Amino acid sequence: MDDVDVRLERTIEELLDQRRPDVSICPSEAARAVAAEGWRDLMPAARAAAGRLAAAGAVEVTQGGAVVDVATARGPVRVRRPR
Question: Where does the secretion signal sit in this chain (predicted)?
């Protein structure tokens, strides 16, 4: 992991801490917070950061409200605190 990976993980955690416990975020929100101009380039890294946090039990990655594995999910996902 490099500094960007660490920043993305930290940003996901911070964004979730700022929201109500039942609210999810999009990984793009973390990417935008880390690099406002080049956030699209960070999307794979943001999804990977969400995956690492999910593997650690800190978050859940969802698609259509169901928990999914971000590594195999296709399309938009959301990140939330475990329920």
Answer: none
Q: Which CATH architecture has domain 3-80?
A: Orthogonal Bundle (1.10)
- 3-state secondary structure at position 63: strand
What 63-68 contacts at long range (C-beta under 8 Å, 24+ apart), as own/partner pairs, is none
3-state helix, strand, coil in the chain (%, to 5): 50, 10, 40
Task: For 63, list phi and psi in degrees, rounded to 5.
Answer: -145, 120
C-alpha 36: how far from chain center: 16
Q: CB of 54 within 8 A of CB of 77? A: no
Task: Give the number of other CB atoms < 10 A from CB of residue 60.
Answer: 19
Q: What is the pLDDT of residue 8?
A: 98
Q: Does residue 19 register a pLDDT over 80?
A: yes
